[in-house]
Specification:
about 350 residues; mainly alpha; 14 helices; 2 strands
Length: about 350
Amino acid sequence: MEQLFNNRRREFFDKTSRYLRYVLNDHFVLVLLVLLGFMLVQYRYLLNHLPENTFAIWIVIGFIFTISLNLGSIATYVEPADKQFLIVKEDYMMVIIHQATHRAFFFWGAIQLIILIIMVPILLALGLSHLHLGVLVVLLLLIKYVIVKKKASRFLNHDRLNWDDLITYELKRKQNILKFYSLFTTVKGLTTSVKRRSYLDGLLNKLPKHHKKIWLYLFMRAFLRSGDYLGLAIRLLILSTISLLFVPNPIISIGLALLFNYLLLFQLLTLFNHFDYHYLTKTYPIDSSLKAQNMFFFLRGLTLSLLVIELLLSFSVLGALLLIGGNLLISELYLRYKVKQMID
C-alpha cells in the first residue's frame, strides 16, 4: 500500500514537472526578476521611510499572514477506484491519510516560516523584539497545525473514511495544479466546469441574434459560464487595479497593468478552440472566416472594457495616454496577428 501511494506521488510529480519548462520560460523569468527587483526596492524604501502611522502596514501584514495560513492542501493521491478496491484496507488507508496530513503540515509550515523570515525586517522596524518573533513563530505554527487538522477532519466520519469527500477533495486539488500549468501550455487530464451564472444572462441577451454573430455569442457564453475564463479575467483585473492604485511610479504602474492585460488576452486566445469538441459547430451554414472575425471582435471589446476601467484609475494624463496607446497596440497589432496565426 505504501509503495502504491509512493508511486502515485512520483508519477504525478513527474507529470507536472514536465510543464515547468513552459512556465519558467525566458519571458516569464525575466518578468519575475523585474517584479522581484521592484518589490525589493520598494521594501527597502519602506524600511528606510517608515511612516508615523503604521496602522495600514499592520493591516497588510495581518492580511499576508492570514493568506499564508490558509495556503496549502493535503495531497492524499486517492483515486475514484479506491472506493471499491481499497475499501477492505480502510484501516491502513487512515494511516496513509495521517501521513499525508503530517507531510502537508511540515511542507506548508516551512512555507509559513519562509514568509515570516521575509517579514522579519519590517516587524523589527515596527518595534517587535526577538522574543515577540519567537512567540509569533510558535503561534503561527500552532494555528497552521489546527488548520491542517481541520482540513483532514472532513475525510473522517465517525472514525471511518468519508470516501466521497476524500475523492472529491483530491480530484479538485489535482485540477487546481493542472489549471495553473494550463495558463502556460496545453495540459492533459484537465477538466472544466460550467456554471450558469444567471445574473450575467443580461449580457448574453444584449448580443445581436444574427447568424453573423453566432461565434461571438458562443465565445461570450463560454467566457461567462466557464469556470476558468471569467475567474482568470477577474483576478488579473484586480492585479492591474492594485498596480494602478498603489504603485506610485506611473510608468511602472501602467506597465504592470498592460502586462496583466496582455496575459489575460493571451490566455483567452484558447477560446478559439473551445468548441472544437462539438461536432455540430462544424455543420453551421456560415462562412468559416466569421469565427476569426468574431473572435477578434470579442477580444477587442474586452480590451476596450478593461481600458475604460483602467482609465478611471489612472490619475494622470501621461498614464491615460500610455494606457490608450498600449492597449491599442495589443488589440490592433498583437491580437490580429495571433488570430491570423491560429487560422493559418
